[in-house]
Amino acid sequence: MGGGVSPKDRAWNAALRQPVPAHSAATYTYPGTSERLDTVQRSGFADDVEGVLMCAEERACGTAEGMPDVLSRTCIWNAEMAEAEGDALRRVPLIGGLLGGVGDVVVGVGNTALGIASFGQSGSFGRGMGQIGYGIGGTANILARDVAATIVGIGGTIYTTVRDVADVVSLGKVTSGGNPLTAVANLVSNALIPDYGMFGGRGWGSAQKRTQDMALNAVDYYSFLHDRDLGKVPRANTAWVRNHWSLAPNGQATAGPVGIAYVLAGTLPFLVADFFPKR
After folding, report:
1. How far apart are CA 250 and CA 153, in angstroms?
2. How far apart are CA 92 and CA 185, in angstroms?
3. What's the predicted TM-score (pTM) here?
4. Summary mean pLDDT of the chain
5. Residue 136 falls inside a structural domain
6. Which of 11-15, 16-20, 125-129, 219-223 has the lowest average pLDDT?
7. What span, in angstroms and rounded, lies between the C-alpha atoms of 131 and 86?
8. Which of 2, 82, 190, 197 meets the CB 3.0–4.6 Å disulfide criterion with 149?
9. What number is the average pLDDT over the span 20-41?
10. Residue 55 structural domain
11. What is the DSSP pairing of strand 39-45 with strand 24-29?
12. In what order do the strands lie in the sheet with 48-55?
């Protein structure tokens, strides 16, 4: 760039920085010669007032001379562009995270194929590859956390089973206050409710003084809330079901296959449990 910014470039920069509604797009034409990048597409996001720049023609990326500073002499593509494609599917309760990843990949394959077929003239090849990467990455994160929660849950089941057996053998002196009937009841109930993650399962989670930041995914996080509220907030079991069948909280990976099965298995028992509160 050098030599300052021309009045035309300043006007161009100002136009690009105007916010536009999330996931909408506007096309601007840069005043200049054909050697310059004459068309870019800007997609604005609510949390990014400067927006995202995407080249209309991939072959122009990084080759145009005299671009204004805001273009940084490169074409920028943001992964949030791919995220928009799977947003509708991600709003499906419980299974939306996995569906959204599949949607991103499917759309990305189509855009990549279009870019190849048009020899790059459609400008969709880079976007398609990004969508595929975003979908695969998000899905891999969900599955990895689901596997981790499953393994931790298996460890929890082993731990609670050994503890409860010891409690029964000692006639309730380990955890049941010397009541052998309570010890047997705890052994049976804990065996019937599987453990998942750091908080899912009876006698597993908050009983070990864990905190909510240790939750491995949304299923685990809602189990933490259940541990916290049970016995203190009315219909905490119903809240567990309602939360799981809502959208995942920000910052938490959504349910994977095992987590989904865990919620499905617990939905009816937890709803019924609130009709028979402990006396």
Report:
1. 23
2. 38
3. 0.67
4. 75
5. no
6. 16-20
7. 9
8. 197
9. 37
10. 1-78
11. antiparallel
12. 24-29, 39-45, 48-55
Q: Sign of torsion, CA 150 83 225 188?
A: negative
| AA letter at 102 | V
Q: What are phi and psi of 41, to 5 degrees?
A: -115, 130
In tens, the pLDDT along 112-144 reads 898 888 887 767 888 888 889 989 999 999 999
> Which residue's entry shows tokens 């028979």?
276
**Helix, strand, or coil here: 216?**
coil
- Tell me which amino acid residue 196 is: Y
User: Torsion angle, CA of 252/208/229/223, rounded to 10 degrees?
Assistant: 30
Residue 39 CA: distances (Å) to CA of 20, 30, 43, 79: 17, 6, 13, 21
- In the chain, the amino acid numbered 44 is G
Are 163 and 175 in contact by the 8 Å Cβ rule? The answer is: yes
Q: Please count the structural domains in the chain.
A: 2
- Asked whether residue 119 is domain-assigned, the answer is no
Asked if residue 219 belongs to a domain, the reply is: yes
Supply 112's token pair: 């990549």
